[in-house]
Amino acid sequence: MATHAVQRRRLIAAYSILFTLGAISFSIQWVYAKYIINFYRTPTTRVAAPFEYTSGKIIRSARSEALNADLEIGDELISIDGHEFTGDAVIQESLSKAHPGDLLQVAASRPDGTTVHANVKLAAFRTSPYRLQDWLFAIVTLLFVPAVALLLGFGLVAVRPRDLRAWLVLALMLSFSQIYYLSGWNGPWHAFVQAYHTFAAVTFSIWLVLLGVYFPERMHWDQKRPWIKWLFITPVLLIACVASTNDVLAQNHLELVADWQSALQFLQKFQTILRLLSILLFLFILSIRTREPFGPDVVRRLKTLRRGATISLAPLFVLIARSLVQGSGISGLPTVIAIPAILLVDLLPCTLAYVIVVRRAMDTRALLRQSIKYAFARRSARILRFFLITLLFVTVALSGIPIALVLGFASIIVAFEITSTEQFREWMDRRLFGAAYRTEQTLLNFVNEVLPNSSFKEASSLFQSILPPIEEAFRPSHVLVLLETELGFRVSYPAETLAGNFPVLPIRSSAVEYLVECNQPQLVYFDDLNSWVHRLYREDREVLRTLKSEVVLPLVRDNRLLGIISLGSRAYDEPYSRTELELLHVAGVQTSLALEHSFLVGSLATEITERERKSAEKDAAEQANKTKSDFLARMSHELRTPLNAIIGYSEMLVDQAEDEGDEDLGVDLKKIRSAGKHLLSLINSILDISKIEAGKMELYLETFTVDKLISDTLTIVQPLVSQNQNELGYHHNHVAGPMVADLVKIRQILFNLISNASKFTKNGTITLDLQGEKRQDVDWVLFKVSDTGIGMTPEQCGKLFQAFEQADSSTTSKYGGTGLGLAISRHFARMMGGDITVESEFGKGTTFTVAIPRMVSLPNQVRAHAESKTKGANGQPLGTILVIDDDPATREIMQRELAAKDVRVVCASSGEEGLKKAREIKPDLITLDILLQDMDGWQVLSTLKEDPVLANIPVVILSMMDQKSKETSIGVSEYMVKPADRAQLSALVSKYLDKPGGHGSDSHGLLVVDDDEVNRSLVARILGELGWEVHQAGNGLEALALLSTGRIPELILLDLMMPEMDGITFLHEIRKSPQWRDIPVVVITSKDLTETERRLLNMNVVGLLEKKSSDLADLIQDIVGQCNQQDPGRGVHA
Amino acid sequence: MPKILLVEDNDMNSDMLSRRLTRKGYQVVLATDGLQGVTMAQSESPDLILMDMSLPVMTGWDATKNLKADPNTKMIPVIALTAHAMSTDREIALQAGCDDFDTKPIELNRLLEKIEGLLQNKV
């Protein structure tokens, strides 16, 4: 916390110093600028100084007006306008108020001792106003260069207040702003400004050398011997102090400085030499330091600075050297040379600011190439035009207005404008900026053609086709693809890198999180401490460092990172431009789509293989089971034939023995017979079970009375019950009456249950209890068989109905039996639509309840029922409708409403049943509820549409929509997949419309509705280029608003997924209005259509209806009618 | 004494049933395949026919159809003897024109009831 407070205090201090300095230097600059402008505006009304003097107040040179007033060179000045002459301030005071023609009273003493009083008639500074080039020169040197330097210097410190080097640059810039100076300046604050100027200009060398020492880090030798730099700095600083003191003193106390003027002049020269030296030293230090072992980014910064400094300081060096030799300023140079030279000098502050501020320094060559490449790419014609016009203006400015030259340029520009056609411009783009053009074209082609038109079934083929174009476009040192594995994201492509020992980026890492969130290509700049890279955990950062990534392109779908494409640095360390990153982003989106697709296909393939394997296994198992069942059935039959003989003969013999009165023989024969019958019942059970398993068990329904059933059963079971001294009770509870069921099977069930009960009960009671019940409007008969036997535990009850299981395996040995009886019984009961349940208490007894509907129906009864119901008035139904809906009320309504309209209605309550029935009856129309219990309505729809037999059956979707809609079609003319490409769009639009403007004045062009601005403007641009007037809307609401202004477009291109109002709702809205209804609509969708959209669009959905609509039936009848009209051959199915 | 034609290919079943019927006071004539059954029905003119369904040469189904098509034999009641209680077997038998059916193994008392009933109807 403390350090934080200190830091804040320092920051505040830094900003206060910055602010004060800024206030001082900018106000000086402001005063100075005002003076300069005034100076250049009033040369003819301002007076010229009539003479020059030395610091010993002796006239050194004189103009004609002074000589005319009897002053001579060598006179010593005493007073001016009555004031004693003490320094520059006195004469400037008089001159600043004077006008040409005024008299200046000068008193001077001749070397011979006489005093001269002269009235000098002052002359104008200039006889003619300044020319334009003089103005230009003054503005560039005295205003523009200082302004640039100050702005850059202060801006730099404002951005990097903690950076010592930024402060150094500011100091350098303050000096730099004073490099040019208007000699003879006598504006306000003269003494102070003069001193400031001198001090700043002299210290230039200090800052330059210090910057060389401290940039980018303090030099080694300076750390060891810091005093060396003071050898240079101290004399310069001394000179600066002396020179600025001299400037102040010269104002009013010329006599004080008079004595060391010659020394001062020498110091000035020495200072100039030091300045030249400092420039050389700076460049020398820079070139030494580029060889030091810095990182690539620092080296790039140093190189950039060295180049910039060399270019800018070279002319400065020449100018200073020239002034040293000739003793004059730069004003002697021709303007045409001087201005560019001075402008070049301005490169120094720019370069300094660049190398300190930018996140990532560029190689200057790359910088130049790229700025040309992207400023000029595709705009070469415009740039050329700009260049020509600038040249024209410069010429005019520098050399007056030569009419011929202006006309010549103008005619060249006009000729260029006329002759340069679109093709010519494109040709020029290609010729002049081929590299940039190619990069962009390659990427565009990649994004628009390669990806959308390929279907990638596996990731490897995908990357084989996308990596080469990326390499071709960027020429990076590497392109790596990291894909998700169990361990994390690891390098998977290109294949040869697999062997390499690359680190793995964990799935739950800060980098992955960041990339998913941003979902944009990211630059990896380690030198920039503000970069996202430095917000990552160190391990993640190290992974990126090891990969040598310069750009990472996340492949994200649905907030999940599928993979990462890593691009290395480019040749010449050329950075990735914003345009390229944007293109990369689009490529990334496409690639992630394709990648997801390939993953899906891959997992689908696996799933299919798995399913095939399972289904083969299942087939094999079924086959084996069937073989077993067949075998059992055959064996049982073979066993029964001899058994019949055994039972038959033993019965015959029993009869015979009874007739003959041989009782002993009769008892033995009866044992044979009973054993045979037992064996037969076992074999029958096995036969039943095998029939059940083979699916061959069938129901034979007959009508009988319950009384008959019970009396038959009781007769048969009576002997069994009495075997264990049990009593048999029977309660019927008035359930008598007719019943439709499989009599034999019910009898068998009851026989099984009662014989079981008597087997496990001794000296007890077995009760058959009959009850009637009404469940969901269906009459049921319940047969309850209770005993007072040994009972069962819950575990035993659980296994009871499984074939070959008894309550306890020990039971078998004790009580005998196959354990099949209950399994068979339950199956029989279920075949009849009923069931058997059991309640038991261990040791107390067991109750089995058999529930059978009083009117059992066969499984295919529904169909028969429907058929019987749907004969039309003329005996011929209009058509068949399959209603798939899980809501019984809806089914009921549809049945009633549609049957009344001579339409045959078949209902299905679940998706699966619906599909089964659709295959069975092949209806003319299917109405489908989207919200089904067992499967999604869309799933049913897609299954229907996958079946070649069913695919052509029109489907009406019943959905729970709120708004009332009478439309039977959502009216989409066509749809196409994003991203739209020119040829496709052109073909599509021309399919619906004539040439642009073909509809005369009432044509309102096309409307593009899409929330994705990139895509929308792309489409709009393409259509615009085709000559269409294009309107755009960001969502359905906007589009509606646009339509309601009365501009009816000729075609609407519509995206489906939009905020506020989506495409489907929009369609519904416009189909409601008679004036909008006929506008053709083409849906443009992204490749990742939602399931719903795809199905809606793909699947011949003729209608999307509201469930609550009261005249639903009418609508459906209409649809059936339409279908029949279209295809009379498939009116009615037999 | 009513005459019963028993058409049954299995020797043991045929022997057993014929002897038991004889004991109950019926005259029993035997045929071992469908074709023989049809010819014997014409030549012997029995009062009732017990017809097994699975027969060699001509199935019981075809034999019964032939019998019911012939005006001379169509009034003779036919009881089908089916192997087991499969509804399909019963349906086939009844469609062929059988007057009644019974399932094997034969329960003599039940069969006798059916025979008696048919013979009385005929009278």
Structural class of chain B: alpha/beta
What about the largest sheet of chain B?
Answer: 5 strands, parallel
Residue-averaged pLDDT of chain B: 85
Task: Please state roughly what percent of the residues of chain B sit in beta strands, choosing from under 5%, 5-15%, 15-25%, 25-35%, 35-45% or over 45%.
Answer: 15-25%
N-to-C terminal Cα separation of chain B, in Å? 13 Å
Oligomer: heterodimer
Percentage of residues assigned to helices of chain A = 55-70%
Beta content of chain A: 5-15%
**Strand arrangement, largest sheet of chain B?**
2-1-3-4-5
Structural class of chain A: alpha/beta
Count of beta strands of chain B: 5
Number of strands of chain A: 28
Estimate percent helicity of chain B: 40-55%
Q: Biggest sheet of chain A, open or closed, and with what strands and sense?
A: 5 strands, antiparallel
Biggest chain pair contact, residues each?
A: A-B, 21 and 19 residues
Low-confidence stretches of chain B: none
Q: Residue-averaged pLDDT of chain A, rounded?
A: 76
- State the helix count of chain B: 5
The succession of helices and strands of chain B, N to C, reads EHEHEHEHEH
Model regions low in confidence, pLDDT < 50 over at least 5 residues of chain A: 860-875, 960-973, 997-1001, 1098-1113, 1122-1134
Give a topology summary.
The complex is a heterodimer of chains A (1134) and B (123).
Chain A: H1 2-41, E1 51-53, E2 59-62, H2 64-68, E3 76-80, E4 83-84, H3 88-97, E5 103-109, E6 115-121, H4 132-159, H5 164-176, H6 190-214, H7 220-224, H8 227-252, H9 254-258, H10 261-289, H11 296-326, H12 335-345, H13 347-357, H14 364-376, H15 380-398, H16 403-419, H17 422-432, H18 434-450, H19 459-474, E7 479-484, E8 489-493, H20 510-518, E9 522-523, H21 538-547, E10 551-557, E11 560-567, H22 578-660, H23 663-693, E12 702-705, H24 706-723, E13 727-731, E14 738-741, H25 743-759, E15 765-775, E16 778-787, H26 794-799, H27 809-815, H28 821-831, E17 835-841, E18 845-853, H29 861-869, E19 880-884, H30 888-899, E20 904-908, H31 911-921, E21 925-929, H32 937-946, E22 955-959, E23 974-977, H33 982-992, E24 1006-1009, H34 1013-1025, E25 1030-1033, H35 1036-1044, E26 1051-1054, H36 1063-1072, E27 1081-1085, H37 1091-1098, E28 1101-1106, H38 1112-1126
Parallel strand pairs in A: 13-15, 19-20, 19-21, 21-22, 22-28, 23-27, 24-25, 24-26, 26-27
Antiparallel strand pairs in A: 1-2, 3-4, 3-5, 5-6, 7-8, 7-11, 9-10, 10-11, 12-14, 15-16, 16-18, 17-18
Chain B: E1 3-7, H1 11-23, E2 27-31, H2 34-44, E3 48-52, H3 60-69, E4 78-82, H4 87-96, E5 100-103, H5 108-122
Parallel strand pairs in B: 1-2, 1-3, 3-4, 4-5
